[in-house]
Amino acid sequence: MAEKDSELQTAKETQAGDDPPKGDFHVQKKSPKLCGSNYPLSIAFIVVNEFCERFSYYGMRAVLTLYFISFFHWDENLSTAVYHAFSALCYFTPVIGAIMADSWLGKYKTIIYLSIVYVVGHLIKSVGAIPSLGNQAVHVVLSMVGLFLIALGTGGIKPCVSAFGGDQFEEEHTSERSKFFSVFYLSINAGSLISTFVTPVLRGDVKCFGEDCYALAFGVPAALMVLALVVFIAGSGLYRKTPPQGNVLLEVCKCIGFAIKNRLKNRSRQIPKRDHWLDWASEQYSKQLIAEVKMVTRVLFLFLPLPMFWALFDQQGSRWTLQATKMNADFGIYVLQPDQMQFLNPLLILVFIPIFDLGLYPLISMCKFNFTPIRKMATGMILAGMAFGLAAIVEVKINETDMPQLVPKESLIQVLNLAKNPVQVTIQDQNLFQQPVEAFQNPDEYSHLILNGEQQSLRFILQHQGSSLAFNYTVKEKSVYSLIVFEAEGSLSSRLITDLEAKPENGLAAVRFINGLSQDVNLTIDSKQFTPVQRNYGVSGYSLVERDTYDNGKCITETGEFTLDLGLLDFGASYTVVITNVSGGAVQTWKSEDIKANNVHMAWQLPQYLLISAGEVMFSITGLAFSYSQSPASMKSVLQAGWLLTVAVGNTLVLVVAQAAPMAQVTESELDGICNCSRSILLSFSLFLFFLKEHS
């Protein structure tokens, strides 16, 4: 992930020439060593701190999109927009942390103070997820305040922690410092891997307040962040703490700003042209600084396509998670939560890095192919584009089980024949049902009903055993209905009931009951008490339940309590269960699947995760190493800030697209089409820039 590579890069800056002056070290006591080695004991506290902090951040972010949808009941566009707005803010705030550390407080105090802000944000976020605490407005305010503080905390300490770890080593122990960075990177991935698997379990498998336990899913990361702060403070007496040395980033910005201002000021004067536009800063800044800034601007040109990649990459936590909610998550021995699929990325990164470094790249070199860093990055972008191509194919297959998109003056209708004999149904001269509807026949699909306005009173004609009956019902556009036909008191009757217009969210199943008995019933399933269902074909409302096999429900009638066996209620399906009889201590039922269950397995997301993770290894790690090698030692932090800002810009691009969709009245399927087209355009533009850089 972007954070992992950027933090590792920040640490390498210290190794390669950004060490504080030696004099600052001489006033420090030498830190005790680990087991007699050259490794300072203080790095153990820093590594544990980083593991806990990354667990905290990734664990919270893994369930964030589903939190917006399930807890706030926001739509997918708004949830996606807020998710990426938070991600973007996490990459803007490192600039604040760098300025605080380099110009004011130093790394140690900056980490302490911003970690406290981080903890407070987590605590506020966790409290805001308690359902009984106020209304939705209170929850939203608390959550947004919490997310802002978390973004300030995690972004602010990002450029400090790894570099602070590098500060702990003495000048001559460069090899030990290099190995420390590998351990540090491992701790980042370990925290990410474990948290993205565990927190979705805390959210979905643990119930509190009668629903998914988001308070616990946010509370555990909060506790890990408290632990991270405690561990970091515990090592205080062992750290080598360097004072602030001045912020290079500010100096570079001032130099660029002065050059532009000076050039515009002298635009109309007859002054000899200068070789480079940055030479206009020579009146105030040294030639060495100007030369180094020139090197930086050349590398920053390489960064132009980077936001396009991050716009794709960071949608794993939003669009890909939402896609997983519409898939079959049963892996036989384990049912995976949709937000758990994100754990594949850190797992695959840990697998791919040694495979690429020790196997793929040497093999390519043996084939005499010059696989330059630019070509690696271009290949990474192609793999990212291919990943979204596969995601689009999966989305098309998923949409086959969705309800049809309704247009004005159109509704959907199906017939549930609960009588003993076939019934022919005609609606206002619209011959929707070519064949008679058999008794207790599960309809294959809904039929489209055309109206002459927003609503219309329609005449329903039922032909049954040679007789014909007529019923009038008012039907509204863009609605979904079931016409239930039944026998009451020896004659045929009917009732028009409203169905769900879309799949249940988050892979839940929806179920309602029709009571065909002559007595009222109370139904209990999954520890939920349904409202009483009236006798003689009364209809209950829908209830959402977890995907499971329900064979021990209870049906309480006037004559006793009976066992209710509903069988499997599958992912994303909607069911109508008709109670037909009571005999032998059990309730006899008939179940109709109104909305088809999710039939695309979540394993089909594996290829897109494989491609995007391989693309990250080629693109992100290579890009960081290449830009690092092309910049002067004193400008590493400037390029680090530029790299992080490209991630922020990438998330901002997704935010803009997601927000533009509802304003343009775009449907979800149309939005996915627009996004896929936009990705193709962005990918083509990015590759053009890469090859332009390659041949320049």
Automatic annotation (TrEMBL):
Source domain of life: Eukaryota
Main location as per UniProt: membrane
Keywords: Membrane, Peptide transport, Protein transport, Symport, Transmembrane, Transmembrane helix, Transport
Membrane as UniProt keyword: yes
GO cellular component, one term: membrane
Subcellular location: Membrane
InterPro entries (alphabetical): MFS_trans_sf, POT_fam, PTR2_symporter_CS, SLC15A2
GO process annotations (BP): protein transport
Membrane topology recorded in Swiss-Prot or TrEMBL: Multi-pass membrane protein
Chain segments annotated as transmembrane: 55-74, 80-99, 111-131, 137-161, 182-202, 214-239, 295-313, 343-364, 376-394, 609-629, 641-661
Keyword NADP: no
Residue span of region Disordered: 1-25
UniProt cross-references to CDD domains, sorted A to Z: MFS_SLC15A2
GO molecular function terms listed in the Swiss-Prot or TrEMBL record: oligopeptide transmembrane transporter activity; symporter activity
Family label: Belongs to the major facilitator superfamily. Proton-dependent oligopeptide transporter (POT/PTR) (TC 2.A.17) family.
Protein name according to UniProt: Solute carrier family 15 member 2
Organism from which the protein derives: Gallus gallus
